[in-house]
Design a protein that fits this description.
This protein has a two-stranded antiparallel sheet with strand order 1-2. With about 625 residues, the chain is mainly alpha-helical. Helix content is about 70%, strand content about 0%. The longest helix is centred in the N-terminal third of the chain and has 31 residues, at about 1-30. It is globular.
């Protein structure tokens, strides 16, 4: 019993900083409807700023003053991010704001590297709170007791701000109906800025508070994102009481998981999230999303029509130039082109799901990495010939996508997106921890192609055939009756169903088809590299695909392909520099602000202005 109580207290203490960061994210989403992926970066920034201030400010007053100042400084950084990065894209499709926040992540990562260096920083002990106290005979750190007092005080202060002040009334009103708030004459721009600053300050406060329990390092931003989004989604997007309760549930379960089921620690919170969303689709205290909140803002989308003769000739010429690469390019150029082709197929598979189907998946790497692992496992444990493993890999990924899609399609909007992320993290944790089968963190190696494909040039043509063929198949499906039914379900589900279209069946088949094509890209990848590791299933890989889809142009059929080619080409150049993330992040922000239609959309508009393309639908 004593140990049980001690574990609960430890879980409650761990929930403190997680709650502060989560309620900041929940506030920002509730008012601005922005899924702020840069929130983890603000948390990391709070830890670094707090550490630097603690080195200067002495004693107990200096320690707590440094924590408060860290929150204020990060709040000011949040104001700059909102005004310079997000405010210019509020009128763009809402998902473009997600890409902008990912650009912020890259910028903050390299700025932290420049200012504080690559070494992990060990957080100082809290003055006067060193050592432990014994509760029922079990040792509890004094700092944990302090956190158990601080967190409820912060929660009460937030409740008072939201429930008892004029600012809180406006925040609650904007959470319910921000258009109505604007119609009443409230300056939405400054309201958004203020809420973003408060959310950022809470993230910074959470980062500084956890210093004595951990420290500061450059991986904090991505490490906090999975539990952060799990807490916010379980509690209900925009709900502060929900975030508090969910933070406690996840933190306490994690403590017990470490003690009694250590192999479950990476999986447990995602299992809880899936179960909660299956029972309560909008979280414990969330509300049903209003139609259009996460849809296609901006100008109406033009109908997609088959490519014109000029465009087809240009594409054929490009493929011919690429096919002749072995005649004028080096072996390295062929390897790089193979990587780009594979990534183009991966991005195009996500674009099929996102652009044509309107289904925003945050976990599409599950099928890319899943296809790679299916092939690798077959070769490693069943001695399957490469050719058969290559065929079975996309089939396995497609079946997994059908199973995941059957569950996820019960939800909509950001809850759908988060559930896809949860399933992707489940697969990643399974691969990461099941070392006896998957190799764990060491991955699977020596997964080489058949003898007839081992030559670099031959494998380049092999990848060219399947990557271009897969993209053309997806384009053909987009212009088929199935593709038109999918777009009808995206644009107006009720009207599509009134015409006799089974929208859920169409969306589920599209989900499985996109997963299969992503698995095909994964199969090409594993045999090109001869190995596969769990990072191919990580959140970052899904984010890469999301970025290139939006950079290329989500409202165009070729956006995913062009975005992937541009992204990989630029990445190959920039990674030669030490601070390449900073440049890449600024470039992403620049494109999102100045060219919200993406590369293809902007070029198409320019071509129409000069008369190269006729006005009309997308191509």
């Amino acid at each position: 019993m004593e140990l049980f109580v001690a574990q609960i207290l430890t879980g409650l203490a761990n929930a403190s900083s997680l709650f502060l960061v989560a309620c900041g994210l929940s506030l920002i989403f509730g008012v601005t409807r922005i899924v702020n992926f840069a929130h983890g970066s603000l948390y990391m920034l709070g830890a670094y700023v707090g550490y630097s201030l603690m080195q200067v400010l002495p004693g107990m007053i200096g320690f707590w003053g440094a924590i408060l100042l860290a929150g204020v400084i990060v709040g000011a950084v949040g104001v700059a991010i909102e005004m310079l990065v997000l405010r210019p894209v509020y009128r763009a499709p809402e998902l473009f704001q997600l890409v902008a926040t990912f650009g912020v992540i890259l910028v903050v990562q390299d700025l932290a590297l420049i200012i504080w260096g690559a070494e992990d920083l060990l957080g100082p002990r809290a003055p006067g709170l060193r050592g432990v106290v014994r509760i029922m005979g079990e040792p509890i750190p004094k700092y944990d007791i302090a956190l158990l007092v601080i967190t409820p005080l912060v929660a009460v202060a937030l409740w008072y701000l939201i429930a008892r002040t004029r600012v809180g009334v406006l925040v609650r009103a904007a959470t319910q109906d921000r258009e109505m708030v604007g119609a009443l004459g409230v300056n939405q721009a400054w309201l958004f800025t203020g809420v973003f600053a408060l959310g950022a300050a809470l993230a910074g406060l959470g980062g500084a508070l956890q210093l004595p329990k951990g420290g500061a390092d450059l991986l904090m931003d991505f490490n906090i994102l999975p539990p952060l989004f799990v807490v916010v989604v379980i509690g209900g997007m925009g709900s502060l009481p929900g975030a508090y309760l969910a933070a406690i549930i996840i933190s306490v379960l994690n403590v017990f998981g470490v003690a009694y089921m250590p192999q479950s620690t990476l999986v447990l919170m995602f299992v809880v999230m899936i179960v909660v969303l299956m029972i309560r689709p909008y979280g414990l205290f969330g509300r049903e999303e209003v139609a259009g909140e996460h849809g296609q803002a901006g100008e109406p989308e033009r109908p997609i029509k088959p490519a014109s003769g000029k465009v087809r000739l240009a594409v054929m010429a490009g493929i011919a130039v690429l096919a002749l690469l072995p005649l004028y390019g080096s072996s390295f150029a062929q390897v790089l082109a193979t990587d780009i082709l594979i990534f183009c197929l991966f991005a195009a598979s996500l674009h099929f799901l996102l652009g044509l189907g309107g289904m925003v998946s945050f976990g599409h790497a599950a099928y890319y990495g899943g296809g790679a692992y299916v092939a690798a496992l077959l070769v490693t444990h069943a001695s399957t010939p490469m050719e058969l493993a290559f065929i079975l890999a996309p089939i396995g990924a497609g079946l997994a996508a059908l199973a995941i899609g059957w569950v996820c399609l019960r939800l909509t909007g950001v809850y759908f997106a988060m559930l896809t992320l949860a399933f992707a993290q489940l697969l990643w944790s399974l691969v990461f921890q099941w070392g006896a089968v998957t190799g764990g963190d060491d991955g699977l190696i020596n997964i080489w192609p058949a003898e007839w494909l081992k030559d670099t040039t031959i494998y380049f043509y092999f990848a060219l055939f399947f990557a271009v063929g897969g993209i053309l198949v997806m384009r053909h499906v987009a212009h088929s009756p199935f593709g038109y039914a999918l777009r009808a379900a995206r644009d107006s589900q009720r009207q599509a169903e009134a015409t006799g279209i089974n929208t859920k069946k169409v969306q589920l088949l599209a989900f499985g088809f996109a997963g299969m094509m992503g698995g095909l890209a994964g199969a090409l990848f594993v045999f090109s590299k001869g190995s596969v590791f769990p990072n191919e299933l990580e959140i970052a890989r899904s984010f890469d695909a999301l970025i290139v889809v939006f950079l290329g142009g989500v409202k165009t059929l070729s956006g995913g392909v062009v975005g992937a080619g541009a992204f990989k080409g630029i990445e190959d150049v920039l990674t030669r520099f030490e601070y390449w993330r900073l440049i890449m992040g600024l470039l992403i922000i620049f494109v999102v602000i100045l060219a919200p239609d993406g590369i293809v959309g902007s070029l198409r508009k320019a071509a129409r202005r000069v008369g190269f393309l006729k006005p009309g639908g997308n191509e």
